[in-house]
Each structure stands twice: as structure tokens, then as C-alpha cells.
Amino acid sequence: MATVNMLFAGFGGQGILFAGKFLAYKGLIEGKQVSWLPSYGPEMRGGTANCSVILSDAPIGSPIVDKPDVLIAMNLPSLDKYEDAVVPGGKIFVDSTLIGRKVNRTDVEVFYVPASGLANEKNLRTLANMIITGKVIKEVSEIGNDNLETALNKVISARHQDMLKFNLDALNIGAQL
Amino acid sequence: MSDMVLMKGNEAIAEAAIKAGCRHYFGYPITPQTEVAAYMSKRMPKIGGTFLQAESEVAAINMVIGVASTGKRVMTSSSSPGISLKSEGISYLAGCDLPALVVNVQRGGPGLGGIQPSQSDYWQAVKGGSHGDFHNIVLAPASVQEMASLTVKGFELADKYRMVSMILADGTMGQMMEPVSLDIESTFNVEKPWAVTGTKGERKHNIVNSLFLQPEELEKKNFERFERYKLVEANEAMYEEYLMDDAEICVVAFGITSRVAKNAINEARKQGIKAGLIRPITLWPFPKAALYNAADKCKAFISVEMNMGQMIEDVELSIRCKKPVHLCCRTGGMIPAPEQVLAKIIEVNEKEA
Amino acid sequence: MAIVFEKPKALTDAVLHYCPGCTHGIIHRLVAEVIDELGIEGKTIGVAPVGCSVMAYNYFTVDFVQAAHGRAPAVATGVKRSDPDNIVFTYQGDGDLAAIGTAETVHAAARRENITVIFVNNAIYGMTGGQMAPTTLPGQVTQTSPYGRDVSTVGYPVKVCELLSNVDGAAYLERVAVNNVKNIRNAKKAIKKAFQNQIDGKGFSLIEVLSTCPTNWGMSPEKALTWLEDNMIPYYPLGVYKDITAEKEAE
């Protein structure tokens, strides 16, 4: 891998920042250079939220991802806003439960993941973010499949350790799609 | 890698301050620096320290004055509008020769402005930013690691020169997470015989004061203070050079924009343009000598800033206008994209051929 | 020969800069006597305001910090939090405490900050030459209320003890005066209690001292004392406004 620039985007409360932080920690554990940059401000409370995550073998310059290799869109405004920013040949992951339309671009690879629907169905209601992240890990080979539990342990607070198993389940569901 | 943790820049500042021996924090909530206060509110009670959410920014800086007067390491943090409110206290800290750390995680202005990252308090920070003849030491971190290390450095320089050290960060630096090692400590300590600790009946009373009604006396104080500032300028300027050995275009940028600039410089090099970067780490003292020397080798300078062009004046002064200096900027909370900086490098390279 | 009267140890030899007849001298002395009697000179730290008493640091033998206008309670908070074993007091005038420093005053009280505040109320800005203060009485003529304080345009005086008596955090509030011997003795008792409270960890104690400003009131010192008696005390009644130590005893 050289560098993977990822942009996670959706509503506040969907675990957008958490999913990004999980992959950043995974990269850290694996000795990669990583950065994680959230949007901040009123959008934390129900508006749109996004975070830039960069994994790299080389020191990271700007932590701002304005041309993502990988876009994870978990609501329609995010897809509308960022679809055109994705680099040609990049990958777009769409939560197809919440986003009715298709991706217009033809020069990118698109994965439609019914993450929110599956989360409801499997009784993992707050974990659509991790289902779609499971799919991202599977399809973006540079990220790799190792250290999932170790990274989760870093980002799940001690108070919520019971959530670890559910997060792993959600990643697995995504990985099997 | 085991000692590296992923942390927000704001949190790294807070933890580094604790590692540096700071046990007193006074603040007031304001985006985008509130994590500093939140972190301190968790940690300070557990280590016997003081976290106090003050009734105002003004009160917070005056509480800082109180602790600084007793000789202990103390800090406050805020963002642009809050720093304006604190500026009264910053002048008093300077006038009383008190060491303290003030953190400004900048957002766009003027006025209430916005909450997105900015560097538009550059002038305020490096020119003192309040009434009277004085300077602050201004440190500009460009990574979460530097948010931590420059916090420790800031406390040490403040103690060494009896000055305010200001960390001049921005919303991006405060909010972003990067791996950081907090295996840091402060080894520098000085005696503070001037501190108000109670005479214990053993010495004449100490007075921490900035009032000198006799102009001769006040002038003498200011002369003495500026002798100290000369030492700071001579000894403490810090900067990073990136690909400057053969550079023809010298980009000057600090903090987050220096990282954007590095991306652009890498791209320019791929296109055969010899661009390099001087990144001031201390904004006051400004690394004048490094820039002056670069002016002999480079054909032009580009100041990249998140404001309408503030540092550019210090660049021009440092190189004594020997070479053209161009501005590449965004403002209002916008961050320049690497493409914008690259386009400027290409433009300047052609223009100054 | 028996010494029947001497300068308190907590006062320096510096000559006071206050105007003839000003009551700051009396109040300084009372504070110094209390510091002597409580034996706390070596661990007391004063915070001076902006106003006539700006140079209080020259007159006490204890460590001192000079604060910005109105900020003394915030500075004192820092000094006290740094070393809670030290005794920290502010000495503030009415403009300092009740106008520009209202927020710092109210919130130091609300936090029950364990400090002692000596609040000198002479109903005028003295140092700047006699302007209307937050405590200037209705109808009172000053440089900036030349036709007398008109409450219909500039509002009413701030009654600090009454105001703070509604703040849960305040521990002890008393208004005293220094216009006659009896009142001066009471004032000293109150000041001593305010320091003792701090030693005992009772929290925020404020003593409001009604004082004169003969120069800016445009009166002889003697007439000023009478004016205080006739005009200020009716508007600012003397007495204890809050005392959590008494409340506890009553329970």
C-alpha cells in the first residue's frame, strides 16, 4: 500500500466517527502512518458528520481528504456531496437501505450495502456503521483483515466492553456480503 | 509502536501539560478547543490538581495570573474570540513578568466569525495582542505529536524567560487524531524567588505588580524586558526545513498549512519544479535568519496562510524584501487544497523565471 | 514605659498616599491588626484592586498581587487554589467590585471560594476624580452625574450584601461602617471573623465597609463622616446579611 484516503460520511449519530477511528487505530497497531480528522460543530447533533481517515506507509501531509480513494456514504446528502470528489478508479460504499438512488459515476467501483436494513434485521441496530466497514475491509485490500479485535478494544471504552462482540458480529456480516 | 496512542490534538495538549507538571487549569467552553477543558476536568481531580470552569474567559486568565503569581505551572486554553477576551490578562502577565501557557485553537474571524479552522490570529499572537510593549513566545504545532511536545516546551520557555508562551494551533490541529507518544517529561525547572508564597516571616514581602506610575521606572522595566526578548530571539527560534537544499521556490507555512504545502511541494518536485518549505515552529521569535539565508538561494517566496496574509509581512521583513513574496491563502475557515498551493508554485515559478 | 498604641506589624513604614481624612487608612489598619492577632502574616497574600487602594501592596508586609480592574476575586481564586493553606484576601473598592468586577465577585461567592473580601464602599470613583459609582446614592452629585444621580436614566445603586445574600455559596456577609468609634470596633470584629472563617475553611466571606471620600464628596473629613451617617447608612443598612456559621449554630 502507498496511501489510502478514506472519507466516511453520514448523519450524526450513525457512528461515522467511530468507524473511522476504528480503522485508524487498526492502522496504528500495524505500524502505519495514520490520521483521523472529523468534521465538528453543530453537525454533531443530527446534521451531517464526516471524517477523513488516511492510512499510509509514508508520513502524512495534509490530513484533509478532499479526493477520497474510498467513500463510505451513509446518507443521501453525503453521496450527493462527495460522489464527484472520489478519484477515478476509487470505491464508493453506499448504505442502500437509506440511499434510494444509484451512483452516477461510471469510473468508480460501487458497492451497495443494505447496512441499516441488515443491522435492524440482525438486532444490531446501532451498528450499520460496522457492517458497512466490514464490507470496506473486505473490498479494500490495502486495509487488511488482521487485528480487528485488538483495534476494537482500543476504541470501545471499558464501560461498553459488552459491545465488543456485537461489533465483531457486525464486521463479519459486512465481510460476508 | 506500543507507546503510541491515537489522540486528538486538544487532548494531547492537556495530557502533555500534566506531564509537564501543570496542576492548574482554568478555562471556558468554546469550539473548537473544548476537549482540552473536558480532558482536564477528568484528569485533574484524580491527580490532586485543579480544574475550574470559570465564569468567563476574563476570569479564567485572571485565575491563571493568581496561580502563576505563586510560581506554579498553570494554563488556560480557548479559541479566537475567547483569546480576545483574555488579552487583558495576557498583558498583565507580561507586565508582571509571569510565566504561563495560553493555548489558542484558532477559528475564523473577525467577530464571532465561524468555528472552522483558521490562522487569522497570527498578528494578535505575534505582536503581543494586547495593550503595552510586550511579546509572547508563540509556538505553532503541525502535528498531534508537536501539540504535545511544544506544550512541554512552552512551559519551559515561559519559566526560563518569565513570559507567556502561546500555543497557536487551529481547529484542524485540535480536532484531528494522530498517533502520539506521551512518553515526555519536563526536565527544566527554575527557582522562582519572586513568587507570592507567603513570607513565612523569613523575607521581605514579594509584590507581583505591573503598575509603575513613574515613567522613568516603567521605561526601565520595559528596557529590561526587551533585553530578555533579545535573548529569546537569539536563542529560541525554531523551524523545519523541507527539501530546501536546492530549492528555488521557498514556500513558508506553519501549522496545518505546512502539511498541505508539503503535499503540493512533493507534486511540484514530480513536475520538475524545485520547491521547498521553511516551516516556522516558533512564530515569535520568527526564524528570520533561516529565511534571510534562503533569500540568497531562492528566486521567490510563497507565504501560505489561512488568513488574508499576515505572516507574509514577517517573511518580507526577514528577507528584507530581497526577493518577491507571493501570497496563497484561504480565509473564513477554509483550508487551502494542495492543488491551490501547487498552482501557485507553478505560477510563481513561471513568473519569476 | 508601657506601650499603649503602636503600628501593627503587618503594616510597612511606607507613608500612605491617601487624601487627608480618607478612611482607607483606618481600614488598612483594621486588616493589619487582624493579621497580627491571628498570627497569619507569614502566610497571608493580598490582592490589590484598581482604584485608590491600587497600591495597597506597598502598605502591608504580606505578599501581594496587583490585579486588573475588577479581577481581584479571580486572581485570589488562583492564588488560593495554588496553596489552600495560605490566607488570601482581596481589598476592593465599589467601582472595582460592584461594576467592572461584578461577575468575578458573584461567581467567587457562588463557588464558596475560601477567600476574604474587604469591600470598601464610598459611593464614588475616587482615583479617577469622583465619577458616579455603582453605589452612588440617588440624587448624589458626582463628576459624571452633575445633576445628581437620576435613577430614571442611570438606574439604582447596587446593594452588594443584599445581592450576595441570595447566592447560596456565600458564607458570611456583613456591612459595617468606619464613621465612629463604635462602628470601627464592629468593623474590626467583622473583618476578624471574615479571616477566621477562611482559616476554618468556611468559604467566601465579604465585609462591606461604608467609607468616606471627603475629597471627591467635596466636604471636610468631619462633615463627610456625618454625611455617611445621614445618607449612606439609611440606604445601606449595617448588619449581618448572611452567616452560615450562625445558621448552623441555630440549627
Summarize this entry quickly.
The complex is a heterotrimer of chains A (177), B (353) and C (251). With 177 residues, chain A is an alpha/beta fold.
Architecture overview:
The complex is a heterotrimer of chains A (177), B (353) and C (251). Chain A has 177 residues and is α/β, with parallel strands linked by helices. Chain A has six helices and six strands. Chain B is an alpha/beta fold and 353 residues long. Chain B folds into two domains: 4-235, Thiamin diphosphate (ThDP)-binding fold, Pyr/PP domains (Rossmann fold, 3-Layer(aba) Sandwich), CATH 3.40.50; 240-351, Rossmann fold, CATH 3.40.50. Chain B contains twelve helices and 15 strands. Chain B has helices at 9-19, 34-43, 57-69, 80-95, 122-126, 144-161, 171-175, 215-235, 255-270, 288-297, 311-318, 338-351, and strands at residues 4-8, 24-27, 50-53, 74-78, 100-106, 137-139, 164-170, 177-181, 207-208, 239-242, 249-252, 275-280, 282-284, 300-305, 325-329. Chain C has a single domain (24-250), classed as 3-Layer(aba) Sandwich (Rossmann fold). Chain C has a seven-stranded mixed β-sheet, with helices on both faces. In chain C, α1 packs across α7 (181-199) and α3 packs across α4. The mean pLDDT of chain C is 96. The chains are: A alpha/beta (177), B alpha/beta (353), C alpha/beta (251). Chains in contact: A-B, B-C.
**Topology pattern of chain C, helix = H, strand = E:** HEEHEHHEHHEHEHHEH
- The CATH superfamily title of the largest domain in chain B: Thiamin diphosphate (ThDP)-binding fold, Pyr/PP domains
Count every helix of chain B, treating DSSP H or I runs of 4 or more residues as helices: 12
Give the domain tally of chain B.
Answer: 2
Q: Which segments of chain B are poorly predicted (pLDDT under 50) over 5 or more consecutive residues?
A: none
Shape type of chain B = globular
Oligomer: heterotrimer
Strand order of the largest sheet of chain B: 3-2-4-5-7-6-13
CATH class of the largest domain in chain B: Alpha Beta
User: What is CATH's topology name of chain C?
Assistant: Rossmann fold
